[in-house]
Please model this.
Amino acid sequence: MRYLNEEELTIASRFLFLSMAMVVIQQDMQHFQKGAFKITEHYMGLLKRMEAEAVNERRVLRSTMLHKQIKVVTLEKNDSFSSYLFLCRGREEKRNYFNPAIRKKVLTILEELMEKGQSDQYASAKT
Model:
């Protein structure tokens, strides 16, 4: 049974998956810094723009969540599924996500951030 409305669930799940995408970006940045790549400036610049975009979006989401009293709590993780508890004004909803589905959602967010990061680069290059 659903206890959170669509808007609350959308905000909380976007925050959750965006946070996961930020971890991926930070790990990728570390791999580029430690790796034996010849030319890293372009990739690092894109990753930094993606991270900045994600930080800004998550800041807005966190503010919205605070205002609407929404929280996300990790319950458990195993090889196949991850469980999260979404809380909102005394209501709670437990959601189980298939880990490959989480990966797909995070990938979608990374692609969105990459598009924004690339368009930011071209916009700043034109000015």
Notes: The radius of gyration is 17 Å.
